[in-house]
Amino acid sequence: MKLAHIADPHLGVRQYHRQTAAGINQREADVAHAFRVAVDGVIAARPDAVVVAGDLFHSVRPTNAAIVFAFRQFQRLREALPAAPIVLIAGNHDTPRSTETGSILSLFEELGVDVAFEEARRLVYSALDLSVLAVPHQALAGSERPSLRPEGSQRHRVLVLHGEVEGVFPADRSAAEYGGALIHLRDLSAGEWTYVALGHYHVQHELAPRTWYAGSLEYVSPNIWGELRDEAEHGRPGKGWLLVDLERGTAAAQPVPPARDILDLEPILAEGLAAPAINGLITERLHAVSGGITDRIVRLVVREIPRHIARELDHTAIRAFKSEALHLHLDLRRPEVNRTTGVGSPGKRQTLPELVHSYLARRPLPGELDRDAFVRLGDELMDAVERDVAGT
After folding, report:
1. pTM of the full structure
2. Distance in angstroms (rounded) separating the CA atoms of residues 200 and 359
3. Which domains does the chain have, with CATH numbers?
């Protein structure tokens, strides 16, 4: 009994400014390609059932092109695997804020896909001796959560859920997706299910026996560099989906090669260096990339560079490098400023990021917003603005 576990395609996501010859955002095209490759792999593997654990789309209102593309891919799945159940749940990205808005995911019911976009659904497939509890984001975000314990007498009982299991995301949350419903591992009753298929965390990860995050199919998180580091720490070489043997409880990673290389170059320490020397090191690092930086996504961190030195860099050359890569993030990090307060002085003067943090921490918010996540996002945005002083 084989099950295909896919999560977080994020179709329709747009990043950077490059477009294809057809006028489509290049990263949107890359993400669509990854989903097509995953569907090709599922069809070739011919599993008995398929689950998509949320965030099919990157937004509640995806473009018409993204909707049509997704429909065609599910149509391919249905035609190639006519007897296999296909279960799709809504993640936080494709869940409307208002239940009156409706969900685009209901469109896929026309293809015979079982969709859970608002409430949890318990689905039974008698011919396979299989039951699936499909729990979308909205069912976890409400005040009354559904029971996550298996029911029924089916031999194979699968839980499909989109949310953030406490303690799994990195401590610094550098690669974390915001907006997920927080759940505890003990609430999953993991040892009682044949398999637990999770979505929301973009790095493929086993939480417990028979309990997996499949990870995303492409690099679409707010901080892809943190995501790369997180993958390395978990020993995961890249993106893909999982082919699960429900009898043995094993999950085999099925890789989806990235559309392009994502490179994090060796940082430059600029302490004590003048702008011409730093220009030379930047050029040296970028020219040393095997195969060049053309159409790649590249980050180069320059540490300990004062603001006045950053302004003196050769920005014409930097813009030329940026136009060559699909995206070049020259991450300029200023030295830490240690301010001291003398006796009798009015006290420490807050920096702009500190002022913004203080304001966000006390600003009135709608009840459904997580204040900690809101403040954390503000801090990261301020940090990004401060770092990328050479951005275009």
Report:
1. 0.83
2. 29
3. 2-255 (3.60.21.10), 262-387 (no CATH)
